[in-house]
């Protein structure tokens, strides 16, 4: 294994200059700790960043990460865990802020849904200040009445005395244009919410780089 000179080791550089002074590769090297035969950990990290970039690397599964030379199960889990922690930190920040627009919903839901290969239906439960208390996936598969029933959408809201909900689901095609089933289910859920006195604020379809909001289109 090729060693790194003491002054260039990420740990020493971070201790001396702080985390802001480190490159993406150096931060990744701190997580991975060791390199491979013939390649130190900084060189390995540079190779990963140059080939995949941070964004694509963050989306690889542990199985996909292990297909990369030098990445075994332990390193794959370290990388995946670091990106997952970062995602949860971003979500925690969003949860402190009231949801005001469909763009807010999109920013919250996109990291959770946009890359899914199947449709996932997620419900966000809001307090009286429109802050997201929690979210949960209630169904996976094509959105239709046989898979999505109002009782599945509202049961947690009833149990936790939720003030309002927002429904979001992804289109794996990347195109957020609603289907007839999307429109029918939205009307059904909105009507159920009115009966239960739990407001359905919006239904947002998550695409690859954009979204469709039923509220913004005056369809709620």
Show the helix and strand layout.
Blueprint: H1 10-17, H2 24-32, H3 41-59, H4 62-65, H5 73-95, H6 102-113, E1 120-126, E2 132-140, H7 150-159, E3 164-170, H8 180-196, E4 199-206, E5 211-213
Parallel strand pairs: 3-4
Antiparallel strand pairs: 1-2, 1-3, 4-5
Helix pairs in contact: 2-3, 7-8
Helix content: 40-55%
Q: Average pLDDT, to the nearest integer?
A: 85
End-to-end C-alpha gap: 62 Å
User: Which radius of gyration do the C-alpha atoms yield?
Assistant: 22 Å
The CATH architecture of the largest domain can be named as 3-Layer(aba) Sandwich
Q: Tally the beta strands.
A: 5
Q: What is the helix tally?
A: 8
Specify the biggest β-sheet: 5 strands, mixed
Uncertain segments of ≥5 residues (pLDDT<50)?
A: none
Q: Describe the strand arrangement of the main beta sheet, using strand numbers.
A: 2-1-3-4-5
Briefly, what is this?
The protein is α+β, with helices and mostly antiparallel strands and 220 residues long. Helix content is 46%, strand content 15%.
């Amino acid at each position: 294994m090729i060693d790194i000179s003491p002054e260039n080791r990420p740990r020493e550089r971070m201790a001396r200059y702080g985390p802001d002074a480190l490159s993406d590769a150096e931060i990744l090297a701190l997580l991975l700790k060791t390199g491979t035969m013939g390649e130190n950990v900084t060189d390995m990290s540079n190779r990963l960043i140059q080939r995949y970039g941070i964004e694509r690397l963050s989306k690889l599964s542990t199985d996909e990460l292990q297909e990369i030379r030098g990445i075994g199960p332990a390193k794959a889990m370290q990388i995946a865990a670091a990106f997952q922690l970062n995602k949860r930190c971003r979500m925690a920040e969003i949860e402190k802020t009231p949801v005001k627009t469909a763009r807010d919903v999109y920013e919250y839901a996109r990291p959770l849904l946009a890359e899914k290969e199947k449709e996932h239906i997620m419900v966000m439960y809001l307090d009286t200040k429109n802050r997201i208390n929690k979210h949960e996936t209630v169904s996976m598969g094509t959105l239709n009445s046989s898979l999505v029933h109002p009782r599945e959408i509202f049961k947690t809201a009833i149990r936790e005395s939720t003030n309002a909900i927002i429904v979001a689901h992804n289109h794996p095609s990347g195109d957020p244009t609603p289907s007839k089933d999307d429109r029918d289910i939205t009307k059904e859920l909105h009507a159920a919410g009115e009966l239960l006195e739990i407001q359905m604020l919006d239904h947002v379809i998550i695409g690859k780089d954009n979204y469709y909001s039923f509220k913004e289109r005056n369809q709620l």
